[in-house]
Amino acid sequence: MNPQPLRPLHRYPHMAPAESALWTTLITANPWPAALVDYDVRVGTTPPPPPGLPQNILNDYNALYMKRIDAVVCLPGSTLAIEVKPRAGISAIGQALCYALLLRTDHPELPEIIPTILTDEPQPDTKPLCAVLAILLIDLGPISHP
User: Fold this and answer.
1) Distance from C-alpha of 122 to C-alpha of 83, rounded to nearest angstrom
2) Are 139 and 120 in contact (CB under 8 A)?
3) CA distance 139 to 56
4) Bigger pLDDT: 40 or 143?
5) Overall number of domains in the chain
6) Rounded mean pLDDT of the chain?
7) Residue 145 domain-assigned?
């Protein structure tokens, strides 16, 4: 990981325009003044490549198949593994939980890792499931998407 000071950027690695709009809305409010952030953090293990893949795919196989956390925010005493997802539903819950566990395995030096979802519109059942599963749900409410 290579965390940098948290500030708005023109583009965020691996985020689609709607995800970038959510992220920019959050960090423009400066919720964590002392935070550092890393984007597109790769975690987990890739499966072995299937036989017969062309060499150009094999060259990039690990980069293509690694799981990626949208943003990892390092705070004093805790770390947020953030899945940025417009209209977040149960798939975002699974991603947030799994990414936090994989981050803990790959980076045991990080302080308490909190699975986190950033969204504009949680789908039905998302809020109560996040509460039960100890996932931090950041609900920005409606924002204008590009």
Assistant:
1) 13
2) yes
3) 41
4) 40
5) 1
6) 93
7) no
